[in-house]
Hints:
Elements: H1 2-29, H2 49-65, H3 75-87, H4 93-101, H5 107-117, H6 119-134, H7 146-158, H8 163-172, H9 184-187, E1 190-191, E2 194-195, H10 197-209, H11 228-236, E3 241-244, E4 247-250, E5 257-259, E6 266-268, H12 286-294, H13 300-315, H14 339-349, H15 354-363, H16 374-378, H17 382-387, E7 395-396, H18 399-409, H19 421-438, H20 453-461, H21 463-469, H22 476-483, H23 487-499, H24 505-515, H25 520-535, E8 542-543
Antiparallel strand pairs: 1-2, 3-4, 5-6, 7-8
Amino acid sequence: MSRLRNLLNALAPLLVVGGVVVLVASAARSPIADKSPRSLTAFDAADDSIVCRVDRLIAARWREAGIEPASRADDLTILRRLTLVLHGTAPSLEELRLFESDRDSDRIERWTERILADRRYADYFARRLSRVFVGADQGQFVVFRRDRFWTWLGDQLHSDRPYDTLVRDMISGRGLWTDRPQVNFVAAAVTDNVIDHNKLAGRTARAFLGQRIDCAQCHNHPFADWKQTQFSGLAACFDRVSISLVGIEDNKKDLDTTADRMTQGDVTVTPAVPYHPEWMPEQGTTRQRLAAWVTHSDNRRFDRAIVNRVWGLMFGRPWIDPVDDIPNPHESTVDTNDLLDVLATDFQTHGRSLKRLITKIAAMRVFRMSSQHPAFEQGHRVDDVERVWAAFPVTRLRPEQVIGSMLQASSIKTLDQNSHWTKRAVRFFKELDFVKAYGDLGEDELTERTGTIAQALLRMNSEFSSEWTKGTLFSAAGRISGIATDDDACLDLCFLVCLTRHPTDEERSLLRKQLEGARGDQRTKIVEDLFWSLFNSPEFSWEY
Length: 544
């Protein structure tokens, strides 16, 4: 008996290691078919009329330009786009196995809803949208809490609260920035305990109306109809907001004065809106009345602005560029040939649901097209192809998308809100360090930028790439090296984890030679090198 006990004690470590290997192999190979999403139809997938209308509008542009559109992208590419723009990371191997086991023809529609139902969408999209709502600067910490604003906005997005209601909360909210996080929209404009009313006016116009009227702060707009008096009236809507020990509040003063830029004397400015004052209600505080005017159902700039911004986040390029300088809509009627008008009308009609808007954009033909087009190979009419959206735009990944994808690729299991807190903490701090070193894009994140040598070196030589390509018992590289049944399976897993696709025949033929006959540490080293190569391939750091 004692011999048996001693034998079990001696074998215990090996049994534990063997169990881990079996579990990992199961996770890597199992289709996990019983967890496939089957009934996620919250946005009525059968109602695709708006999708068809937009498809026809864009197809008309192709015909008018005499350009054939790109072919449809494969489903794995579309899934990668969705998780990058909605979760800020490439899909995990666990998710890819589940997706590949789903053979139904409508799996993209159901997976779009599955991704939107995941808390990662709310958290990531909140960070993207918050850049335009509260800027990208650190702000004055004592009176501004970006983390609280992120959490609050994430909660609104997760519950799919109507967009106009949360905008009204931001513009007119009162209270402490910790207790009522929406007031951070105002608190972000505080410097040395002074609220910058002009900054709030400019941000309100840019963020919620897609209009750049900042220059009218000093003079009449040289190219548009905006006058200096219009900007002053809009800024005066924030004149009565103040900051105190109880937070953001509205004081009771009746007259609003500001310094005249020419005479430096005090002038009285009456709160006013730049157009259609009849949309502004008579009752409420000035900020409540302004919020009601901004979100008024007849104020088409409001819905057009968020549609253009969400389009930009989905494609990496807004429909109208710059995203916050949209031409004025036709005053009297909706233009049925204007894509923004068509989508904005549908958005308002369906409760201003951002999840529904995203779902519809993801279902459009233009979102599912390949980024490859014969014009790019031939160098002929490239600008025309891009102008009429005849191919999916290729855009550089944002810093947090690069680091998010590298972190996810280092793990076979999905890194999400259900992961162990240590993994989530590591991801949070590593992401901060990487973005700081890589360079934040700031508030104008949709402005096209070129990559830098420093960014390329960071991916090649930094501790980030060496740490996450290392083959250990718990890393993706180490596990794949140990569990892949043969060389082809090993290559498949590496490419799926890093690039969300299978290797081409040419890649397979070339790389299989490197793995032939390699075992143990030698094989792990080869897989580490393959991970490093894929991390540093151009394909890894672009959305396409």
